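Everyone, describe these structure tokens:
***
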Amino acid sequence: MMQNVHLAPETDEDDLYSGYNDYNPTYDTEELENDIAFQEAVRTSHGRRPPITAKIPSTAVTRPVATGYGSKTSLASSMGRPMTGAIQDGVTRPMTAVRAAGFTKAAVRGSAFDPLGQSRGPAPPLEAKNEDSPEEKIRQLEKKVNELVEESCIANSCGDLKLALEKAKDAGRKERILVRQREQVTTPENINLDLTYSVLFNLASQYSANEMYAEALNTYQVIVKNKMFSNAGRLKVNMGNIYLKQRNYSKAIKFYRMALDQIPSVHKEMRIKIMQNIGVTFIKTGQYSDAINSFEHIMSLAPNLKAGFNLILSYFAVGDRDKMKKAFQKLIAVPLEIDEDDKYISPSDDPHTNLVIEAIKNDHLRQMERERKAMAEKYIMTAAKLIAPVIETSFAVGYDWCVEVVKASQYVELANDLEINKAITYLRQKDFNQAVETLKMFEKKDSRVKSAAATNLSFLYYLENEFAQASSYADLAVNSDRYNPSALTNKGNTVFANGDYEKAAEFYKEALRNDSSCTEALYNIGLTYKRLNRLDEALDCFLKLHAILRNSAQVLYQIANVYELMEDPNQAIEWLMQLISVVPTDSRALSKLGELYDSEGDKSQAFQYYYESYRYFPSNIEVIEWLGAYYIDTQFCEKAIQYFERASLIQPSQVKWQLMVASCFRRSGNYQKALDTYKDIHRKFPENVECLRFLVRLCTDIGLKEVQEYATKLKRLEKMKEIREQRVRSGRDSGGGSRSRREGSAGSGPRSSYPRPQKVAAAACSLCPTHAKGGLPHRGVAISYLVSPPWS
């Protein structure tokens, strides 16, 4: 044991670094090239033999320990075999696996350890991409096709359908080129089917959006018939939608059913929507029993509002009262799946909780909940109004049943709305007393319902010209809900009817402050400013209203009328031209255009619009008179005769039209016809002096014997006329003093300078044929409860 222990000599005590230059011969690699045994082992198979698997426990063999001072001794491995690089029997065992450790045969002692080869310098530059290679061209073309598809979709979402279709067509062309290039370079299995599918599907969608249904169907057929496209069968739904738009209902049902067969049952929602489309198509074809089966199946699987409402419509079409009631109850029971309003009320004063509630009070989810609730209320209200008159013996009993069902559901607040609709139904049946009684029942309800009922009562009394009652209920509506714009508008109308325009304008302004979209108040304040001769402000109001209601004929007319009052006929003509583009058959607007062109001296344009006005409404005396006078001025008296004859039919008691007919005959040289006409006028109006004068002149020119008779009658009438005028003059002279005394006594009391309320109420819409001038303020109505003519 001690033979391998070497004691340090005493002479070396002070040499702390002695022995560090000695090393184990195992690590000596400098002389490997000169080692004959190692080189022989490398050249022969001896050095390439695999290692022997150890079968002897490695712990049974001990290895000698070498110190830094002993001679080079061999080291034994755990297998009892000499270790790599050890000297055994004078032969050095070759070293292996040294290159992987970072050593090379050229390495010298002291060189840096560089296993990653970083000393060799930077890597050579990457090989430049070959732009002309077929693979690169295919990649670039595929990228371009994807970009075109995306641009097409974006253009469609922005409303530019033509650009979207052009992009889709361009993508289709480039995709076909891409397929041909792929077939030349690679095998057909490497074709990008997803890209082909997306290009064809987008092209079909754009064809459909542009109403090019034949092309869209052809493109869908290409997709559906290609068995390589997975799930292409569901596109038959789109084809069914196109056939539905084309009113080809049988094919639409066929494709819907084919799509339904190809969609697995796991896609429950998709199947429900297709079945709903099938039911709607059956309704359009009048097959209500089949539609009922579809909607009943939907309501049993996944009840929803649309299916429930369509089911009620189907039962209403077949007249089944009991089923209508059951379907209405099913519609009421459809869950909304929205949170209650209490969730958005803070239960504590915690600022963090309040901040969270404030953030979610009007977020997108809350808006979606409001929209869903509004849609549910709309369906329920429409269904109730539809079935109430037919499910019971009278509509009142039907409404009462609907109200009771609604009160027992989650839509309790709709019960009051149904009651107000009941009052409106009474109005449609001209039963005003029942309507008023029904609305008066709400005077003791909560403020919102009371305000709505009082608003409608004010409207009713205003229509009946009972302005005191209208004002009373308008006050009640305003006091119940100060922020009700319809109530404020009605109050302004009652004040307007009493002639207090400034105060009326204040009410209209307050209504606009509460609801800037209240078009009735904005229209009425424009009329008020017009009455106050504040034309610039009136024009500003009507222009704002025009920005909201682009195609409102009343607003366009008012703008033209204001420009006419401002003595700007060119602008008035321009706005009237816009008006007749909206209502091309409005005779009043056409006659106004003719009047403006006539005032500008353009007789030909004036004749054109007057003639169009006469064609649509041949009973306007002013238009008839202008057309007759126009033909007389242009020396076409024969054409003027028909207009004056029509005027004489409209006003048979006015002798001037018949005299104009006779005058036209005389001017055209038909004296005999003129003489007969004058004789006929004389029989009807024997005291007409002008007719007798023309008779005397004609008889003298023709040389008839009746001239003396007509001359005698003319003298007698002229004498009687002189006597009558003398009596009138003498009566005026004798009654002048007494009249002045009466006027003095009458002037002692105050007199209103405003027109009577009845006169104001009679001045209705300026476009109405029976009320041509002025403008009545629009009656403010409770929009949710009462539908009235928009500018009554």
In short: The first strand starts at residue 87 and ends at 88. The radius of gyration is 51 Å.
